[in-house]
């Protein structure tokens, strides 16, 4: 049974993430303890609400350092919703710029769509070879609730490195990053823990990479 830590840094949605992971067979602990988060088989970084508030909470538990230490050792991390957004360089909300973890270049910004927030079920466009979405039909829907996202993928392709697999979604004609698979660092803009059987399947796919 894979040992998974859901990082507790004051963001909401911790218990629903915990229950969803338990449902697919993980041994889950919700904690901000540095050693537990560093040494677990997998680390989940959830997040809801404002980008700046999430970064403040993350910094209060040295979350960026925990994420960096795990990735340096090739140990899996899964970001969810704002927990994905804070992995990028920066977020801009209401004209305020907040520095993120900087694992990927890019800016989290307000969606340019006639109706915001983007709330409800939506399909995604997955790249060939995705392990995160393996076994799921292309018309599978996931649950989103957000007003901000990454609308441009800015990481340049390196000649000798396998490029990340980037999944996209569309809300009222505005495209944004819906998920990323980049070595041990995976993330989703949608909420797998709120996406029913499809979300459970996706979390199981992630757990299968931990053993």
Automatic annotation (TrEMBL):
Residues 5-207 form the Glutamine amidotransferase domain. Its main location: cytoplasm. It is found in: Cytoplasm. It holds the Pfam family GATase. Heterodimer of HisH and HisF. IGPS catalyzes the conversion of PRFAR and glutamine to IGP, AICAR and glutamate. The HisH subunit catalyzes the hydrolysis of glutamine to glutamate and ammonia as part of the synthesis of IGP and AICAR. The resulting ammonia molecule is channeled to the active site of HisF. This is Imidazole glycerol phosphate synthase subunit HisH. The lineage of its organism: Bacteria, Bacillati, Actinomycetota, Actinomycetes, Pseudonocardiales. The gene is hisH.
């Amino acid at each position: 049974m894979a040992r998974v830590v859901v990082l507790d840094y004051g963001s909401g949605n911790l218990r629903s993430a915990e229950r969803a992971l338990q449902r697919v067979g993980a041994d889950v602990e919700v904690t901000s303890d540095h050693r537990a988060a560093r040494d677990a088989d997998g680390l989940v970084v959830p997040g809801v609400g404002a980008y700046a508030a999430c970064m403040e909470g993350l910094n209060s538990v040295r979350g960026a350092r925990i994420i960096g230490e795990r990735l340096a050792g090739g140990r899996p991390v899964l970001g969810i919703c704002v927990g994905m957004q804070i992995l990028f360089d920066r977020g801009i909300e209401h004209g305020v710029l907040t520095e993120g973890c900087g694992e990927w270049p890019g800016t989290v910004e307000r969606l340019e769509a006639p109706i915001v927030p983007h709330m409800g079920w939506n399909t995604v466009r997955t790249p060939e070879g995705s392990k995160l979405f393996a076994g799921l039909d292309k018309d599978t829907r996931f649950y989103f609730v957000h007003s901000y996202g990454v609308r441009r993928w800015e990481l340049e392709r390196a000649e000798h490195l396998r490029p990340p697999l980037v999944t996209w979604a569309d809300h009222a004609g505005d495209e944004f990053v819906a998920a990323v698979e980049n070595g041990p660092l995976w993330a989703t803009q949608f909420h797998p823990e709120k996406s029913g059987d499809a979300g459970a399947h996706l979390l199981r796919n992630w757990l299968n990479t931990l053993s």
